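Rotation project, supervised by the postdoc (A.L.). Task for the rotation student: set up a whole-complex structure prediction and record inputs and outputs verbatim in this book. Inputs entered:
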Amino acid sequence: MIKRSIGRKVGCRLLMVVLTTLTVALSGCSSDKTGDSKKPETEAAQADNQAGNADDLSKLIVGIPQDLDSFDPHYATGAGTKEVLFNIFEGLVKPDENGNLNPAVASEYTISEDNKVYTFTLRDGIKFHDGSAVTVEDIKYSIDRNAGADGSEPLVSSFSNIDSVNILDDSHVEIVLKEANSEFLTQLTVAIIPASNEHPENKIIGTGPYKYVSSAPQENFTVTAFDDYWGDKAYIKDVVFKIESNADAVVMDLEGGSIDMFARIPSSQVAQLSDKFEIYEGTMNLVQALYLNNKVKPFDDVRVRQALCYAIDPKEIMDFVSDGAGVEIGSAMYPSFGKYFMPELNDVYNQDVEKAKALLTEAGYPNGFEFTITVPSNYKQHVDTAQVISEELKAIGVTANIQEIEWNSWLSDVYNDRKYESTVVGFDASTLSAAALLARYETDASKNMFNFSSEAFDKAYANAQATSDDAEKTKYYKECEEILAKEAANVYIQDLPEFVALNKKFTGYVFYPLYVQDIAKIRPAQ
Amino acid sequence: MKYIIKKIISMIITLVVVSLCVFLAFSIIPGDPALRMLGTEASPELIAQTRERMGLNDPFFIRYFRWFTAFLHGNMGTSYNYSVPVSGMILGKIPITLTMAVMSFLLTILISIPFGIITAKHEGGILDRVITVFNQIVMAIPPFFSGILISFVFGMVLRLFTPGGFISYKDDFGGFIRYLIFPAVAVALPKIAMTVKMLRGSVIDEAAKDYTRTAYSRGNNTNGVLYRHVLKNALIPVITFLGMVLADMIAGSIVIEQVFSIPGISRILLTSISNRDYPVVEAIIMGIAIVVIVTNLLVDIIYRIIDPRIGIEE
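Outputs recorded:
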C-alpha cells in the first residue's frame, strides 16, 4: 500500500532540503576553519621545532591531571595542587632544585645557638601580587594562621612547637620554639600571604614569580608573570594549567597542540609521542613500597616480612612497569635526598627464593599463606606493581589477591583506620627534611599507618631530632633507615621514574627533590 | 488544571526521593570529605576539628533537613573543594552541556525525521535497504567509540579541530560551537539511527490502518494522506522517544565529555563524586532530575497539541 503511494517528487524535495541544510552547515564550518585555526596549525606542523610566530612562545599550556583542591595555600594538601601553587606563593625560605633552602620572603636568617629562636630579616622592597609591600605583620599573620594561634588546631602539625612569633621591628621577625629543633627551617616554606586578605580561599595573592589571573573549575588555572618579582623573573609571560582529566587523551592533546607540557606521563605514552617533544627523565621523589600492616598476622612476624623482601625483585617490577626506568631503594628514603640516601641498603635483601621459603617455614608457614593487597585504583603504576608482586610471590607459595579501591576509600579505610593487610603506594616528602619521610615510623606517630614499632628506631629518631650537629644528625637518620631495612618494616621497591613531555618550542625543565613544577625556569627554545 | 497540580505534586515527591537517595548513597559509601580535604599529613585533631566545622558529625536526618531547607530557599551551599557557591559554579557549566545537548538534539530531529519518512515511503526500495543496514551499524556503535574515531579522523588526520582544545563560550562563541559539533555528532548518531527506525515503523503501521484508506477514498493524494493524516499519528510514539532522548542527552553526557575533554556539568559531577564534594553532587543530580521531569511534562503537553483526543486521565 505504501509502495503504491510513493511520491517521487516529495521524496526528492525532502532529500534536497536535507542536503542543502547539511551543505550549508558543513560549508559554514569548513570556511570558518580555513579562516583562522586551520592555517596556523598546518604552519606549526611544517615549521617543526621553529615556532610560527613569537606570540606562541609567550604562552605555555601545561596539562595537569586534576583540578586544584584549594586555592588557599595553607589549606591545600594535594601534591598536585602544591606543585602548581609553588609558582605563586613563597615562604620565608624556598627550596631549589638541588635541595637547598634559599631565602625568599626573608632575605636572611639567623638561628640561635640553642636552636630555639629563628630570626628573619624581611627582604627589602618585596611586594605582593596586588602591589602592596610585604610587611612583618603579614609574616606573623601567616605563621600564626598555620600554627593555630587563635586556639584552633595547627594546620601544620609541627607548628604546634611554636611558642610565639614576635615582631622585633619593621624588618625583623623572630619565631620562638617551645622545644629546640635544628630542622625547623625546612618547615618555613609555608606561604606568606597578606594579612589584609579576608578571603584567601578565592582571592589569590602571593609573592611568587607568577600571579593569578583567572580559573574555571575543571577547565583551567591561568597565571601571568609578576613584573615586580624580587628574584629571577619568569621567562614565559602567560601560563595556563589545563585540567586533563582523561589520562588517555594526553598523547592526542599533546600532538594536537592543545597542551605543550605534561608531567608524569607513563612510559607507554612516552613511546607514542613524536619527536616534536623533548622527554625529560627524572624521578618522582616517592618511596614506593609494598606497605605491610605490621600488626596483622602474618606480618607481625619479622621473618614473614623478610621472606617477602627476599621474594620480591624491584628490578623485575621496574622492567614490567616502566621498561626498566626507576631507582631501586632499600629503605624509606629516595635518592634526591643526597646525603641521607643509602644505596647499600638495596642489597640487604637480594632476590633469593630458597631463603624466603626457609624463613616462611621457620615462621610456621611452610605452605605459604594468602593475603590481600589493597591498591588505590587511580594510580596505575601502583596497580601494575601490585600485579608483578603477586606473580613474584607465587614462587614462594604465597597468594596475593589484589583489591583495587577508590582513592577516598583508601584514605579513610587504609590510611586513617589502618584496616588493611598490605598496600602499594608511594609516600612523598612535604619538606626538605629526612624527618618528612621517617617521622611516620615512630611508634606513636598518628601517621604511622604501618603500625611499625621498634624501640631502637624511636631512640635513633629522637637522637636525630635532639642534635643540631649535621654530621651526627645524618648518622642517626641513617641508623633509622638501617633499622627499617633490617626489620623489613615494608618491602621497599623504588623511586618511580618521572617522564615530562615538553614541546621542543620550549626548554629548561628542571626536576626538584620535592613534588613541584617550577614553570619560571622554562624558556623559549630559541 | 487538576492535571497540572497532580503533575507538580508528583514532581516534588520525585525530587525529594531523589535527593534523599543521593544523601543516603553518600552516607553509605566510604570516604570522608574532611580527610579528603586535609590529606595524609593532617593530625587527627585537625581532622576532627574540620569535621565539626563542616557539620559532618551531625545525624543523617539533621544534615539532610539542613540541606533541604537551604535548597528550598535557593541556597545550594558552598563547594567543599572550591570554596565558592555551588550555584555560580554550576551556572557557568550549564551552557556547555546544554548547548551540546541541544545541538545533538537538533541534529537528531533534522536528520532522522526526513530519513524516517523517506524510508517508510520507499519501503523495500534500495534507499530503504541501504539506510536500514547503515542504521543497524550506527546503532551498535556506542558514542564513546564513535567519539574516539571522530577525534582521530577529524582531529588528528584532517585537523578540522584540536582534540582537547576546548574553547570556552566566554572566549570565542564561534570556536565553542565549532568544537562542540564533533561531540554532538557522536552523541546524535545512535539516536538518529533509532529515531529513523522508529519513525519508519510507526509510519508503516499507521499507513496500514483503515483511516488511511478512507483518506485516500476522500480523494487525497499520497502526500496529503502522509502529511495530513498518517504523520500526525505516527509522530506520537516518536515524540515520547525524542523526549527520552533529550533527557538522556543531558543526563548521559558523562562519557562524551570525558572523551572530548569538555569541562561541562558531567565533568564537575564526576570529579565532585570522587572528591566527596556533596553539595555540588546534590545540586547537579537535582538539576538533572528536574530536567528529566520537565521534559516529560513537555512531552505530555505536546501530545495534547498534536492529538487533542488524548485526554487527561483522572
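Student's summary: The radius of gyration of chain B is 24 Å.
Supervisor addendum: Chain B touches chain A through 77 residues (CB under 8 Å).
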